[in-house]
Amino acid sequence: MSRKTGFVVLLIGSEILGVAVGEWFFRFFLQTVPPLALSSFNSGAAHLGFLGYGALTGLVFFVWSLLVMFMQGLFRRAGAPERRSPAGA
User: What percent of the chain has pLDDT over 70?
Assistant: First the structure.
């Protein structure tokens, strides 16, 4: 897999995870708010808001993942070289 394809897969995966988190919190919102206090407009607006926050959460996951990937390379170079165990052990 090329580096560019890996970034695209990471972006898509993190966005799917973020939107799933937004949908999960929307379901939790529906369970906690009494039905008499919730109109269809409020429900639709809340759903859109939770999906939007989920998309932003997915972008945060993507940026964190990129940060971890780049920092992993820095720490690997700064430390001692990897020791390989003997073949018999």
Answer: 87
